[in-house]
Write a sequence for this structure.
C-alpha cells in the first residue's frame, strides 16, 4: 500500500482543498474516478455505497466529502466500520472547510475521538493548512511566473505578494487577469502591480489617506498593525507599497498622469494628495520610509517602533507643512 487508506484535509480555503486532493490523486497516476458528496446535504445510500462497494466495471474511486464539518455528530461513528481496513478500490477524502480558531482547525463534535482519526494523525493522513498566508505568496508568484517565463522588475513581486487576496481562487483569478494585460510583454512592472488592488490586504495609500484626513495617529497605527501588517514579516512589503504610492504621486504631480493606469476615482484622490504634498512633501515620505527601513535593518528600532516613528512623521507632514511646499511642475 503506497497511498493512505483515507485522507482528512482541514483548510478554510476550498480551492486549496480541491488542489490538494487533485495533487494526491495525480501522485498515484490515473485510474481514480472522483465521486463528490457534500456534508451539508443528506448523505443517503449513494454515499455509503460509494464508500464501501467496489464496482466490477470501473476502476478505483476517489470519494470526496466536501464541507464534512457540517455532518451531524452521529455521522462520524458510522464511518468506523468502513475505514477499519484498507480498501484498494476506494480512497475516501474528508474535507473539513470550517474556519480555524487561534489553536487551529475546529474539528466536528464526535470526530477527534474516533480511532480512525487518530490513525490519520499518526500516519500523516491528515493535511492541515490555515489557507494562504503572506509567506506563501512569494513561492506562489515564483511558480506562476516561472511556468509562464515571466520576470518582475525590482519590487514588483513584493508589491504583488502584499496586494493579492488571501484566497487561492481569487488570487489565481487576479493573476489570470494580470496575465491578459501583459500581451507580448514578459516583464511585470509596478504599473502592472497597481492593477491588483481593492482587497482586504495592505493598502499604502489608505494609510496615507487616513493620516491626511486628520485621524488620530495612534488609531491609524493600531489599524495598520492589527489588520494589515499581520506580523513583523510584513513590515518591509508594507514600506515597499508606501514607497510605490509615493512614486506614483510623484509621477502624477510631474505631469505624467497619462502614463499611470488607475481607475478614475482612484486617480482623482491621488492627484489631490500629490497637489497637496508637492515635491517637498513627497520627498519627506521617501525619507520617512527609508529611515524606518534603515532603523529596522540596523537594529536601532524594532519593526513596531519603526512603524510608530513612520506614522508620527507622516502625521506631522499632513499636519500643515505639506500645504506650503512647491509643486513638482513649478
Amino acid at each position: 500500500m503506497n497511498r493512505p487508506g483515507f485522507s482528512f484535509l482541514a483548510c478554510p480555503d476550498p480551492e486549496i482543498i480541491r488542489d490538494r486532493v487533485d495533487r494526491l490523486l495525480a501522485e498515484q497516476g490515473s485510474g481514480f474516478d472522483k465521486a463528490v458528496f457534500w456534508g451539508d446535504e443528506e448523505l443517503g445510500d449513494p454515499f455509503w455505497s460509494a464508500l464501501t462497494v467496489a464496482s466490477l466495471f470501473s476502476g478505483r474511486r476517489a470519494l470526496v466529502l466536501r464541507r464534512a464539518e457540517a455532518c451531524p455528530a452521529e455521522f462520524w461513528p458510522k464511518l468506523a466500520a468502513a475505514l477499519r481496513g484498507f480498501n484498494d478500490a476506494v480512497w475516501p477524502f474528508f474535507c473539513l472547510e470550517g474556519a480555524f480558531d487561534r489553536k487551529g482547525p475546529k474539528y466536528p463534535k464526535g470526530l477527534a475521538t474516533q480511532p480512525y482519526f487518530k490513525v490519520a494523525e499518526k500516519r500523516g493522513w491528515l493535511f492541515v493548512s490555515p489557507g494562504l498566508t503572506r509567506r506563501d505568496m512569494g513561492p506562489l508568484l515564483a511558480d506562476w511566473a516561472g511556468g509562464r517565463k515571466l520576470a518582475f522588475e525590482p519590487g514588483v513581486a513584493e508589491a504583488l505578494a502584499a496586494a493579492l487576496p488571501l484566497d487561492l481562487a481569487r488570487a489565481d483569478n487576479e493573476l489570470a487577469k494580470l496575465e491578459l494585460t501583459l500581451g507580448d510583454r514578459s516583464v511585470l512592472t509596478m504599473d502592472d502591480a497597481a492593477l491588483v488592488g481593492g482587497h482586504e490586504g495592505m493598502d499604502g495609500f489608505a494609510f496615507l489617506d487616513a493620516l491626511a484626513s486628520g485621524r488620530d495617529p495612534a488609531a491609524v497605527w493600531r489599524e495598520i498593525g492589527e489588520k494589515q501588517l499581520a506580523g513583523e514579516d510584513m513590515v518591509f512589503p508594507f514600506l515597499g507599497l508606501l514607497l510605490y504610492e509615493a512614486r506614483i504621486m510623484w509621477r502624477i504631480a510631474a505631469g505624467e498622469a497619462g502614463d499611470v493606469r488607475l481607475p478614475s476615482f482612484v486617480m482623482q484622490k491621488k492627484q489631490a494628495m500629490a497637489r497637496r504634498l508637492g515635491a517637498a512633501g513627497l520627498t519627506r515620505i521617501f525619507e520617512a520610509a527609508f529611515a524606518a527601513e534603515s532603523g529596522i535593518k540596523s537594529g536601532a528600532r524594532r519593526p513596531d517602533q519603526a512603524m510608530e516613528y513612520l506614522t508620527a512623521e507622516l502625521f506631522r507632514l499632513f499636519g500643515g507643512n505639506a500645504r506650503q511646499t512647491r509643486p513638482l511642475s513649478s
Remarks:
- The first strand starts at residue 7 and ends at 10.
- Residues 320-330 have pLDDT under 50 and may be disordered.
